[in-house]
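[STRUCTURE TOKENS]
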Amino acid sequence: MSDIPTRKAYREAQAKAESAAAERDVKRRETERDYAAAQRTAKKRKAEPNTRFDAVTYTKVNSLKKKLNWAIGIVVVLLIIVAVVLFKL
């Protein structure tokens, strides 16, 4: 009979388990809060350099814009030529 726990021992074990779980939960929340704060500051630092174009990127973007405009213009002209040939306008 001595190997069977009593009600009192069972309740004490349950109370210890609950208090240990509550302590773990407090530590977990603290750690998550610290991690979230660290991620926010890291994201801000990472985002700052990308807010402006440097000179090289600006030049590349402008040259690509010009090439795209030429390509669109050529396609429009070719479509008009095809329409004229097909429909003999």
User: Anything to note?
Assistant: The chain has a mean pLDDT of 88. Residues 7-47 form the longest helix (41 residues). DSSP finds two helices and no strands in the chain.
